[in-house]
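Readers outside the structure-tokenisation community will struggle with the description of the input data as it stands. Showing the layout once, in full, would remove most of the difficulty. For illustration, here is how one protein appears when written out as sequence plus structure tokens:
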Amino acid sequence: MAQFVLVHGAWHGAWCWKRVLPILRAAGHDAHTVSLTGVGERAHALSKDICLQTHIDDVLAVIHHEELSEVVLVGHSYAGMVITGVADQLLAHGGSPIKRLVYLDAVTPHDGESWSSRHTDETRAARMASTDAYGGLALPSSDAAVFGLTGDDLDWVNRRMTPQPFGVYLDTLHFNAARLATVPRTFIDCTEPALPTIATMRERVRSEENWQVLEIQTGHDAMISAPDDLCVALLSLV
């Protein structure tokens, strides 16, 4: 039995895994979600003090308090930053319950990079300017149509997305790359439509060693637009 820990991306919350959880559990696996501080049902906790380490600590707390030991740690989009930091910090303390890292159309950082590091200058400037609407505190969400969603799915996600704490956008992550490379890593590429801000990550994982790459023909929010296909991919890893 695998123990999945599912970490949502920017502007989302644990709610986005609603269609995935019953499939994984019906297959006989344990599955947990995390709502990161400042978004989802924890949007009331939005503050200027939220940083990348805050979100890393959110995930570490779930692993610790649930006493998980065979974790398939899945990070969507921005949460690629988070799961990388989680795994590195667990390994730094003499061991890791992480069985595999899964980057779902996610950021795959190098040591010293931030979520924003590989964005274009135009994207970075636009996002930073957009924080004016929240006094520099948060990044407003975009229309979920950019994730390839339509119809009821589009309306459902647009109703639930919340502003993203801005403190995590520029925060750099430092980790031991050689140590992290001891954990198997999979990148799930959502190809139709492909989200432009993930383009450099798609190229990166195909040019570096020790990456397994899977593809799903759906948009960026695969857990909503193609939960069955996503679960087939996740279950193939265990």
